[in-house]
Write a structure and sequence with these properties.
The protein has three helices and 15 strands. By secondary structure, it is mostly beta strands. The two termini are 33 Å apart.
Amino acid sequence: MKKFLLMLCINVFSVSLIVSCGGGGGGGGTSGITYTGVTTQATIDENNAVEITLEAYEGVDTASELNILGAVSENSSSVKNPLFVDISTYFQSVIYDIESSAGQNSEYMGAVITESDTITGSCGGSFSYTLTGDDQTGNFNGTLTFNNFCEQEYTASGSMTLSGNINLNTEEFNYFDMTFTNISLTHGQESISLNGSIAFNLQSSPITMTFSFIYKDNLNKTYKYENFAYEYTEGLGFVDMTFSGRFYHHDYGYVDIDTVTALRINGNDFYPSSGTVIVTGDSGTKARLLVIDSSSFIIEADTDGDGSYDNYNSGAILWSNV
C-alpha cells in the first residue's frame, strides 16, 4: 500500500508528494553546511510579494535554473515543485528499499541482530546501510552511505545516521529518522548540498513529516527550512497537502509559511486546483497565494500590516510559468 501511494503521488504532483513522514522533530545539524544568508525577518511589499511567496513555496530561487529535483514524471519535465517535497520523496524511496531488504531476512524478528545490505540504484551507484534492532521494543539505529546512488536520474552521495521503530508483527517501519551533515544531490550539472534531519511517521493519519535542514545551491547561496511540518492526505480521486514552518531565504531573510486551506490536487493534475497559502513577514506584512484552478493562481499582499490584503494584487499567474 505504501509503495502504491508513492507511485500515485509521482503521477499527481510530477515529482511525487510525500506519502508518509515524520513524527519526531527535525533539528538541523551544526556541522557541515551552515546558513550564511540574511537572518532577520523579511518585510513583504508590493515589489517583492510575488518573489518571496513563490520562493518560500518552492524553496528555490525562481530566477535561477536550479530546480534540480524538478519533475520525475516522463510527461512533466517543465513542472516545478516545492523542493522539500522532492527531497523528502527521494529519501522516502530509500526507506522503502531498506524496508523491502530488511523484510527479506526472516530472522530479523526474534533476535537482536545487525542487518546490513547494499542496494543498487536503477540508474547506477548504490547505498549501503547497517541497522541494529531490539526484538523487545522494535527500536533500531544505524548508518547509511550513498555511493553515487541514482534513482530517476538523481544521484546522492554522503552519509547519514538512522533511527526509528519497526512493527514487530508486520516488519514495517513505524518511524524512521534521518540525520545528515553533508549529503549532495545532483541532476545533470546542477547540485545542492544538505545538512539537517528529516523525521518520517509512517503510521500517522493524515500522513505527516517534520524536518529542519539547510541546503546550499551551486551558486553557493544557502536556504533553510526550520521546524517545518508537512501532512499528506489521500481522498477519492484527489490528494490534499498542508505544510507550515519557517523558511529562510538567502537574500531576503525569513518568513513563516502556512497552508490555511489545504492544497488539493485532482486526478492526474500536476498543480493544485484549490487552496490558500499565507506567508508572513516583518511588522505584520503578509502575502496570500490563492489558487484559482489547476492552471493559475493569484498573490495578494498586506504591506501595511492592517490585516487586509488590499495593497497589492498580482492578477492571474500561470502555474506553468513559475
